[in-house]
């Protein structure tokens, strides 16, 4: 798994310290802090980020589609022998 960048860790820490703020306001505050000279690496030092767990597969298979529409999507013929709107010549 790819590690988070220092900026991502920094914004996560700012969000943890200000849980009542909207995320766009957190980003604005983090940007302001960075412009004012806050050292991002030192600010986030000691912060641990737990890795996300992979989603478990349920083991259920998708229901198999049947009928004319399913046949069109897979490219199979539906078994129709005659053509529409054609008159036979005798």
Question: What gap, in angstroms, lies between the N and C termini?
Answer: 72 Å
The total of beta strands comes to 0
Largest sheet features: none
Average of per-residue pLDDT values: 79
Tally of contiguous helical segments:
4
Beta-strand proportion = under 5%
Helical proportion, percent range: 40-55%
Q: Which structural class fits the helix and strand makeup?
A: mainly alpha
| Contiguous runs where pLDDT drops below 50 for at least 5 residues | none
Bulk shape: elongated
What radius of gyration results from the CA coordinates? 29 Å
Q: Helix and strand succession?
A: HHHH
Could you characterize what this model shows?
4% of the residues are buried. The model has no long low-confidence stretch (mean pLDDT 79). Helix 1 crosses helix 2 (23-35). This protein has four helices and no strands. The longest helix has 13 residues, at 23-35. It has helices spanning 6-17, 23-35, 40-43, 68-74. It is an all-alpha fold and 90 residues long. Helix content is 40%, strand content 0%. The protein has a domain at 6-43. It starts with 5 loop residues before the first helix and ends in a 16-residue tail after the last helix.
């Amino acid at each position: 798994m790819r590690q988070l960048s220092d900026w991502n860790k920094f914004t996560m820490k700012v969000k943890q310290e200000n849980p009542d703020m909207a995320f766009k306001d957190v980003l604005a505050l983090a940007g302001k802090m960075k412009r004012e000279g806050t050292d991002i690496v030192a600010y986030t030092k000691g912060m641990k980020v737990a890795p996300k767990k992979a989603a478990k597969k349920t083991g259920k298979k998708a229901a198999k589609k049947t009928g004319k529409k399913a046949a069109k999507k897979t490219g199979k013929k539906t078994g129709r022998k005659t053509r529409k709107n054609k008159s036979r010549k005798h």
